[in-house]
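Pipeline run #58 for the internal structure catalog. This entry was flagged by the ingest filter as a single-chain record with no existing model, so it goes straight to prediction. Upstream metadata was stripped on purpose; only the residue string is passed forward. Reviewer on rotation: M.T. Logging verbosity set to normal.
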Amino acid sequence: MRASLFFSALAAATANAAYSGDIVSYWVDQTSALVNGTIIGGLQSPPSSWYVAIVTGAIYEAAIKSKKESLAYQQLAVSHAAHNAIVWVFHGTRNYNAADASLRAVLPAIGLAANTTDGKSAIETGRKAAKKVALARADDGISDFVDFTHGPKNPGVYQVTPGGSPFPDTPQARFVRPFAGLGNITRFRSPPPPKITEKEYEEAVVYIKAQGAQNSTVRTAYDTDSAYFWRESSITGWNRFAAVVVGNKLATKVVESAKFWAQLNFALANAGFASWDVKYAYTSWRPVTAFHRTDIWLPSGLNVSDPSWVPLLRPTPNHPDYVSTHSTFGGAAAAVIRAWNGGDTIDATWSSNVTLDNRGVITRRYTSLKAAAEENSKSRVFGGIHFTFAGQPGIDLGDTVARATLEVFDKNWDQF
């Protein structure tokens, strides 16, 4: 009798076992690891945010459908939703084993066996969630071919950048349907950049030529490290930043966690689409193109030509300069984290392992989301790949789009 009671208690304890961390945060981290690994090798800016939005959307759908079940059930449902969403995005690649490994690694900690009634139900819940999102996004425009024709080789007009593709990245991204039913993305379009004839333009040119060069003698060591620190994919970086701020506070609150990560990544995706709309509306050239031009083109007569000029961050991304999408993503992420945090003040320390120039690990502490977003933006100037005037409008655009996404999220999130 005692043995029977012992095994009954053991079975109950096993049934209630669950992963001790935040399962949603785990899958957001795995999502980044899988896209940045050697198989995929990263994605362009809007597709990288689109991808994580799909995964977190599937996770939130699974969390909502399983919210009345045990923690282990919710974790298992969320895990299969994330796995299948990742596989759907990358079907046809060799990423299957890597995605399977991410799922296999967390299953023992969740502890809900796949052959039990609850296990089978949770798995089916996750699979249905991923399918729902995949069907919703199958015709969103991300796969459409949109051609691009370079403008005349006049000062200020975007041209092919050294080391870049003959054509700019994903011009179709500006037409992709936004997440959460946000609607026409063009209504957020930023005002145009300054004209070449304006004083602000020449000041920006002179500044970045000195500050953004690989061999700059005026850029401070801190600013050089800022360029390196913020160099990684914005989507990966800001999700890592958010994970430091949120920590393990939502580990047992799967629905709350899933909602936060979906809000963050829906906002990031929408901000990416909005930024691309601005870029392709104005098609502004990159700094490297301006300096490699051999004639005198500034109205003042100042000669800034230097065909040997190389930016610190290289190669220059092959899409137009204005606005800075890096800044846009930062503005969007800061807005969502700020809304969750209940204010701008934080205490977040995190590191970036910089492989460029063998810089190594850089660790920084941030106490303000606004300051972090601004430093993220300025890093692209110190890296030599964005004019100064591309930064703050990008932050403002991201902030506006993120707040608009949050406003419609509860009503429209399941429109994906």
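catalog note: The two ends are 54 Å apart (CA to CA).
catalog note: Residues 1-16 have pLDDT under 50 and may be disordered.
status: ready for reviewer M.T.
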